[in-house]
Amino acid sequence: MNAIGIALNLANRFAGSDFAERTRLRKPAEKLAYIVTRRGFSAVIKSQGALSKRKAKTNKDKQSQTSQKPSSLFDLNLSEEQMMIKDNAARLAERLREEAASSAIDRKPSEAIWNEFDELGAGYFILPEDLDGMDMAHASETWMLLTEELARGDMGQALALLSPVSVALAISRWGQSGLQHTWQSKLIESGRVQASVAHQETGVNRNDAQPSCTAQKKGNSYRLNGHKTMVPISQSAEFFLVSASLKDKTFLFLVPRNSKGVTVSQLPSMGLHSADLGQLHLKNVDIPLYHCLDAGNFDAQEWLARSQVAAATLATGTAQAILDYVVPYCNDRKAFGEPITHRQSVAFMIADMATEIEGMRLLNSRAASRAERNMDFTKEARLSFLQATSKGMQAGTDGVQLLGGHGFIQEHPVERWYRDLRATPLLAGSLII
Amino acid sequence: MYLEIPGKFKGLVGQAHQVARQVFRPISRKYDRAEHDYPVELDMLAALLDAMNDATGGIAGSGKLSQQKHSEGVRNGTNMSTVLGLIELCWGDTGLALSLPRQGLGNSAIAAVANDEQLQRFGHKWAAMAITEPEAGSDSAAIRTTAIADGDDYIINGEKIYVTSGERAEAVVVWASLNPNIGRAAIKSFVVEKGTPGMEVVRLEKKLGIKASDTAAITFTNCRVPKANLLGNPEVDTKKGFGGVMQTFDNTRPVVAAMAIGVARASLERTQELLLNKGLNYTKSDQDLTALEASLLEMEADLEAARLLTLKAAWMADNGQPNSKEASMAKAKAGRVANHITLECTRLCGPAGYLEDELLEKWARDSKILDIFEGTQQIQKLIIARRILGKSSSELK
């Protein structure tokens, strides 16, 4: 209880007492309370203002080192840079939507799509300024915006396209300088290095924080053993970023595809076919020590939290695609002599879908914004992940329902979105923001 | 992007929380049991709140809400501070928060549309709002109360129900039709001061919850008010008409959403205190969560989504952006999740959730009204759906 609390408590007891009533003191007492409080609060507020200014100053000193953005007002506006990147991503998303609709999509993004993605310049966003990059490896908000837009086009292709980005982000965030330099020169050379994160494992016992895949230190290398599944771009990735337990802790290890003991196989899944998911088998795979992503600052929980926001964002973009689709469809579809959207049972499903999507987006935004400011975002990430898992799937099933029988056949994309969205909880550990 | 509570409101939120903890909580059960008794503690508090409002620019009530128009830069203004204040106050007690003098919905209507002369006369009066009639609830265009011009006066006839603070307020803002044959365009609002002959409080309702708040039925029998008491434009414009009257609600829906968030947070926090040894672990894997933890996490995610939707709607109003859809989204989500959360918490806590030595059962009763008044869940969905689908009220009924 602070000073104001104590004062209020006393005033309250006095106000309710018989003594005040009997002695008719209440009115003058109220007057006194008003004057004292007004002066008191003004003073308190002034001193709080001064204090927060002082705090802000010391924070600012820190901010210049950690690239935090100072902003003290609640604000949902995007920066010009963010809007520009989002607009470009939206154009690519339209292409993804067309590709996904054509049956030509052979379980992975086409070369043309990869090239168009490269033109977005994600590789250069990540590179530091002294290498002519945009130094945006820590721009979590931007990665979230980009992820949502691409997922609005197609969740599977978005997962594929963003996998190399996430590996690069992880390396620039947690990699040792040797690895960072290697990766940077590869990025400068080609703008993109085909790589994806391998985190999910087969079987029903899931604990995202403790992989059963293991790493052991053997002399000048780590030896990895285990099996990974749901690995994006499994056919084309040259590198896999593998999560494994080293003693009791979880770390990420960069495994070149051509390492001895690495095999890749296919196992079809319910959805996300355009992400080219595959299985990775590691049998006594030895990698150099500096391929462990730990420059002394790796925090597996933080990595997972970043990936939870990314997964939630993929679901949000996909749910938005459903909303974009069902609105014109249901307005055009007639039954009993009028558009079915003239019926509350249909209209209310769409209203709820829109509301939940907006809620999901705000949860993702808050988590990403906190991440970008180096504020703790463990809780925000988990809440966004949970909400997107349940409300995203709800949008998926309602999307099919709103189209009725047409929703169940592959002529319309809603059945695909339904299958894709079921993957949301399994996408922890795939992309990061 | 920045989705945290701005530093400049931290003090205000802290004060509102102290009011909730030190003033509301200790008397919460007392006035839940003594329905219709006037909470005398609130007079003292109202004096404090007036002081706080004057010192800080507003913490409670919807008295000064309006769509802000300004030139440049981002604003966090009255809409946001009101929402933040009410989340805290309703964490304390929803019924008492509703009973705060001079913070009623009637004050909101006056603030939104009164002219200078009217502001002078009514600005400092505690004003209730009388819209609903026995035969007209959600369909407020169907009201039958009439206001017929007669010389320099209007003569009001009709019956109003569910008037929050209808007995305690110093004035009532009454919705009535200048001409029932014209329909919604003829509906205007009138300030009727307490003691005006012909206005009579005939009954106070006994309710499921928010018992500290008095809910009155009021009749108007040849009740004569000066023409100068009509709020807004007296002309009947069949082209515009109703929109202006309804606009007040765009500003107040986020406020009711905020109330829902406050009471739901109270339930969730108390349930965690009772059932968990330490706080929730946000890093536990899905398969390791107990049923209780999983349920608490789901509820918290829903509540946080509702809270952010509410802040967004308030932020838009503060920045002059039309927010009708977003205000309805906030109200719809907050109303339904708050009711769900308060009920679920009573279930999780077993008999402790049901018996009166805890406040959980009370919060589960209080929360229900928040999914009803200021537009029911269904009305919010209609508003959202019409906006998204591009439908008129005659198409999507």
Tag the structure with descriptive keywords.
heterodimer; A: 433 residues; alpha+beta; Butyryl-Coa Dehydrogenase, subunit A, domain 1; Butyryl-CoA Dehydrogenase, subunit A, domain 2; 4 domains; seven-stranded mixed sheet; two-stranded antiparallel ribbon; 14 helices; 9 strands; 13% strand; globular; B: 397 residues; four-stranded mixed sheet; four-stranded antiparallel sheet; 8 strands; acyl-CoA dehydrogenase activity (chain B); EC 3.13.1.4 (chain B); oxidoreductase (chain B)
Q: Overview of this structure, please?
A:
- Chain B: Belongs to the acyl-CoA dehydrogenase family.
- Chain B: Keywords: FAD, Flavoprotein, Oxidoreductase.
- Chain B: Its cofactor is FAD.
- The complex is a heterodimer of chains A (433) and B (397).
- Chain A has 14 helices and nine strands.
- Chain A is an alpha+beta fold and 433 residues long.
- In chain A, strands 1, 2, 3, 4, 5, 6 and 7 form a seven-stranded mixed sheet that branches.
- The longest helix of chain A has 41 residues, at 26-66.
- The radius of gyration of chain A is 26 Å and the shape is globular.
- The relative contact order of chain B is 0.12.
- Chain B has 397 residues and is α+β, with helices and mostly antiparallel strands.
- Chain B has a domain at 127-241: Butyryl-CoA Dehydrogenase, subunit A, domain 2, CATH 2.40.110.
- Chain B has helices at residues 10-33, 41-56, 78-92, 94-98, 105-113, 116-122, 242-275, 291-318, 324-348, 351-354, 360-370, 377-389; strands at residues 127-130, 146-150, 153-164, 171-177, 187-193, 199-204, 215-226, 230-231.
- Chains A and B meet through helix 1, helix 3, helix 10, helix 11 and helix 12 of A and helix 1, helix 2, helix 8, helix 9 and helix 12 of B.
